[in-house]
Design goal:
By secondary structure, the protein is of the alpha+beta class. It has helices at about 1-35, 65-70, 110-120, 125-135; strands at about 40, 75, 80-85, 85-90, 95, 110. A two-stranded parallel ribbon has the order 1-2. Helix 3 crosses helix 4 (about 125-135).
């Protein structure tokens, strides 16, 4: 019985690997099409094959070999800071929040830092207000010690 169960699990794992491989090839083709037209930055999110803790490292180039050959695909970390038309932007990757969207901003993709604040505090249920609070606090991940996974860096004085 145990051997049959192990064999079945191995079959399921092999099938899952094949399906993931097909999905990555499809995404590679899509990113290649886009990257042939304009520069693309790709940032890992909470469900991607990258570090679970912030800052997440860029996705490995082996996932999208054809798109990387275009020279227009750039794997970036999460969070990611960039400049666009003279405006500095700091982005974090995340998921569509489970909370209400009272002001109907459309579909919002929030970084884990913003969705965690909304989940674990009573500050506001307004996404934009929470983002403004992050700027006012000058703190990108205020829930890092309790809810958000992060790398702790200890500064040692020389």
């Amino acid at each position: 019985m145990v051997l049959q169960g192990a064999f079945k699990m191995q079959e399921m794992f092999t099938q899952l690997q094949q399906e993931l491989g097909k999905a990555l090839k499809c995404l590679d083709s899509l990113l290649l099409e886009i990257a042939q037209q304009l520069p693309v930055d790709i940032m890992p999110g909470s469900q991607d094959p990258s570090d679970a803790r912030l800052p997440q490292q860029p996705l490995n180039q082996s996932y999208f070999p054809n798109a990387y050959q275009s020279g227009n695909l750039n794997a970036v970390s999460n969070p990611y800071e960039f400049e666009l038309d003279g405006v500095t932007i700091l982005g974090t990757a995340g998921d569509i929040p489970q909370t209400q969207n009272p002001k109907n901003y459309g579909i919002l993709l929030l970084g884990e830092n913003v969705s965690d604040i909304m989940q674990y505090s009573k500050i506001s249920s307004d996404v934009i207000e929470v983002m403004n609070s992050n700027v006012l606090w000058r703190h990108i991940a205020p829930t890092a010690t309790d809810a958000l996974k992060y790398y702790y860096r200890l500064k040692v004085k020389s």
